[in-house]
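#structure-requests
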Amino acid sequence: MTITERILSGIKQTLETGDRVTIDLREASAITGSGDGVGGRTFFDNAFAALRFANPIREMSRVIPASGSSVQFVAKTGNAANSTNPFGYTFTPDSGSPNINTSIWQLPTRVISAQLPVRSAVMSDVNYLNETLVEDLMLEFAQIEGASMVLNNDQAGSTTTINGATNGLRGLNMYTSATSSAFGTSGTAITNGIHSIATYTQAAAAVSYSDITDMSRLFPAQYWNLPGTAWMMHPQTIHELRNLGSGTAIKQFAETGDDDGGAVVNIFGFPVIANPNIQTTGAGNFNIYLANWPRFVTIADVEEMTIQAMEQSSPGFITLYAEKRLVSTVRDPFAGIRLVGV
């Protein structure tokens, strides 16, 4: 709209309504060409462009509310029925749950904190800035917790400092590897509840088709048809699986053209979830997980989250302080299996 059109439109409006009309001529008054500072004020977009990778484990796992400074988990590890001959009326007294053959473990809630300085002058320039900041902060928290849930060692203070170390979550990779899964020791110490996870070792340095078939064969059958059963692997591992097979032969994981028929979008009927926190193929790396995630991992979120704004903590800035508390654990070690590289 030209300056003349703006003025005529404003005059028409005030004649019709009798209201006082303000005509903004700043955008049009300097339009003399193209270039920075020519054509009016700078326009600020209403969102941050880069998208953070949210936590895939949170999307698939069991999430429960929690309160307090720690969360205790319990598992029935024995059978109430007579294991010698459960038919008939023979029984073993004082056997079963909740007190006999039961394992407990307790984990402290961990805090993720952030300081977010916002330049005061930009508050009125960027549309929906408050909503955008909150959304980005939630994704940043999800990105931090996602890495800690896979990679962190909560038993050592120096090996995984960037993911929290002894102040972080208990990562999947630090659980004990074993031929078959088992519950960890029972108790309330931080060293309890470190379960054993069934771990299949690759036959060679490069992941092969037989590695995937052998690994899935060992996955307990009771979890196969449950909702939430899925593979989780690094995008690079997905790429390596798609490349299996020579250039002249049919790929071992081939595209079939259906919505769920993309190569390595599904494997043996289970969906494949890309997770950049899962390790890539390499010696000692846990590069593929297959699990019924709602039973395998539980995330307990403390139902209070703190966000506080401090004005003028630095001249010209408002600083947001935010924190959230949570805990994560392998709830049922039998519900997951993993592949390790050699």
